[in-house]
Amino acid sequence: MKEIRKVTVMGAGVMGPGIAQIMTLTGADVALYDIVPEALEKAKTALHDNYLTFVKEGLLKQDQVEPLFAKVSYTTDLAQAVQDTDLVFEVVAERENIKRSVYQQLDELLPQGVIIASNTSAMNIFEIMPERRLADTVIAHWYAPANVIPLVEVVGNSQTEPEVVETIMDLLRRGGKTPVFMKKFIQGYIVNRLQQCLNREVFYLLDNDYCTPQDIDLAVKNSFIPRACVLGLCKRMDFGGLDMTANNYRNHSYHMPEHGDEMPRVLAEHIARGELGVKTGKGFYDYTQEDIEALRAKRDHQLFEIFREERALMEDPV
């Protein structure tokens, strides 16, 4: 496997600081790049806060914070950011023209053999990557908050070298992540595709007034979501019996909601009222009386707690 001593993170927005933090935990030096100086300043604050959160959660010691924080540099100069780098995480906006331009710049600046990993959530970047870079290119799709959620979906293309995949998978594991490899690209990967299917059914139930958002959340928190921590989805079918799963298909016990690709009425109504969720103070729930930063901190703490429990279960699986 290739040795990764320096990592460049392109994009200092929502995901950039979390990815930079995890890379420092592997021992790598990190250059965080953005074209907007203010974004870098915000990222610097967010990154330091992330390290302090790890201290609170018992994942780091206080005396580790400053040495790790010092491993990250910040620049608006791309040539400087990628100088002597071994790996570039591309975390720029999800627009083809922007990504195409970025890949062209990287192709001009990088020597052959530097790994490029895109965090794209939906685009087949292998179609717009310069041909000579494909052997060293993967998708590495992180979930927000990037420093908290363990999963990273790694996607190869037909030309990706096995050594590159092994290097990325090993690096992510050393950073405390759980990488899952996908043999080829499909839009949405694993988790987003499953979530979109769930969302389709959620909005069908809400649009037709079968139950409330609170009822849905209570139901799933007390059934298949915690069960999935133990069995996942495929092993759950093994325990239930594949013949039972087959019977559900034969008996037509489930019918996909019609018009599921259209904008759900309930969602459209919230959007029209400017109720976008936590960031506006109201969505399915009302957050107007909440301290949002405290609420996000509580969310992160509870996520750390559940993932700690899940990791113990994964180390001794059923």
How many distinct beta strands?
A: 8
Question: Main β-sheet, in a few words?
Answer: 8 strands, mixed
What is the gyration radius calculated from CA atoms? 21 Å
Give helix and strand order, one letter per element, not per position. EHEHHEHEHEEEHEHHHHHHH
Helix content: 40-55%
- Please report the number of helical segments: 13
**The CATH architecture of the largest domain:** 3-Layer(aba) Sandwich
- The CATH first-level class of the largest domain comes to Alpha Beta
* Approximate strand percentage: 5-15%
Q: Can you tell me the number of structural domains?
A: 2
Overall pLDDT metric: 96
* N→C terminal distance: 32 Å
Q: Which fold name fills CATH's third level, the topology of the largest domain? A: Rossmann fold
Q: Any idea what the CATH superfamily of the largest domain is called? A: NAD(P)-binding Rossmann-like Domain
Question: Could you walk me through the main structural features you see in this protein, from its secondary elements to its overall organization?
Answer:
It is a single chain. This protein has 2 domains: 6-182, NAD(P)-binding Rossmann-like Domain (Rossmann fold, 3-Layer(aba) Sandwich); 192-315, N-(1-d-carboxylethyl)-l-norvaline Dehydrogenase, domain 2. By secondary structure, the protein is α/β, with parallel strands linked by helices. Strands 3-2-1-4-5-6-7-8 form an 8-stranded mixed beta sheet. Helix 1 crosses helix 2 (37-56), helix 2 packs antiparallel against helix 3 and helix 10 crosses helix 11 (242-250). The protein is built from 13 helices and 8 strands. The model has no long low-confidence stretch (mean pLDDT 96). It is 48% helix and 12% strand. Strand 1 (6-10), helix 1 (16-25) and strand 2 form a beta-alpha-beta unit. The longest helix has 24 residues, at 292-315.
